C-alpha cells in the first residue's frame, strides 16, 4: 500500500554555503544541516530540501513563493538587504518590480527575485 507520511520538494544550488547564507541571513529562514544538503524550514510548517549539484542549472520557473501581508514593505526590506528584483518582457511591473495583479483583477501582486544560484523566488500578496 502506498501510505504517504509526508512530502517535501527540493532544488539544487551550485554553492551550498553561499545559498545557505542567503536563505538564513537575507531571507531570515531557519536552515538545518542534513546529509548531503540542508532542510529549509518554511513559515507554516513546510520544508524544502536544498542540495549542491556540480552541474546545477538554475530553475527557469518560480521554485518558492513567499506570501506577505504587505508586498511594498517586503520589496523595500529585501531591496535594503541587497536583493534585486527581476523584470520580464511583457510583464507590466512597476518601478519596484511589482506586478500589480490585484488592481487589474489578474491574480496576486507579485515580485520575482533570484537566489545566489539563479533560482527564481517571489514575494506575493493576495491571490489565495
Structure report:
The protein has 128 residues and is of the alpha/beta class. The chain has a single domain (9-125), classed as 2,3-Dihydroxybiphenyl 1,2-Dioxygenase, domain 1, CATH 3.10.180. Helices cover 16% and strands 32% of the residues. The protein contains 2 helices and 8 strands. The protein has helices at 16-26, 71-80, and strands at 9-13, 30-34, 37-41, 47-52, 62-67, 99-100, 109-114, 120-125. It has a 4-stranded mixed beta sheet, covered by helices on one side. A hairpin with a 2-residue loop joins β2 and β3 (37-41). The model has no long low-confidence stretch (mean pLDDT 94).
Give me the count of strands: 8
Fill in the CATH topology: 2,3-Dihydroxybiphenyl 1,2-Dioxygenase, domain 1
Helix content, binned percent: 10-25%
Find the CATH superfamily.
Answer: 2,3-Dihydroxybiphenyl 1,2-Dioxygenase, domain 1
In whole angstroms, the N-to-C terminal distance is 33 Å
SSE series: EHEEEEHEEE
Q: What's the structural domain tally?
A: 1
Oligomeric organization of the protein chains? single chain
The fraction of residues in strands falls at 25-35%
CA-based shape: globular
Neighbour order of strands in the largest sheet:
1-4-3-2
Number of helices: 2
Structural class: alpha/beta
Amino acid at each position: 500500500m502506498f501510505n504517504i507520511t509526508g512530502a517535501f520538494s527540493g532544488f539544487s544550488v551550485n554553492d551550498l554555503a553561499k545559498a545557505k547564507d542567503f536563505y538564513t541571513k537575507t531571507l531570515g529562514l531557519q536552515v538545518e544541516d542534513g546529509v548531503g544538503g540542508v532542510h529549509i524550514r518554511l513559515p507554516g510548517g513546510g520544508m524544502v530540501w536544498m542540495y549542491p549539484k556540480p552541474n546545477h542549472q538554475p530553475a527557469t520557473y518560480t521554485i518558492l513563493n513567499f506570501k506577505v501581508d504587505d508586498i511594498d514593505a517586503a520589496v523595500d526590506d529585501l531591496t535594503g538587504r541587497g536583493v534585486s528584483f527581476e523584470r520580464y518582457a511583457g510583464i507590466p511591473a512597476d518601478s519596484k518590480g511589482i506586478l500589480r495583479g490585484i488592481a487589474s483583477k489578474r491574480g496576486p501582486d507579485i515580485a520575482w527575485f533570484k537566489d545566489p544560484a539563479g533560482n527564481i523566488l517571489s514575494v506575493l500578496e493576495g491571490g489565495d
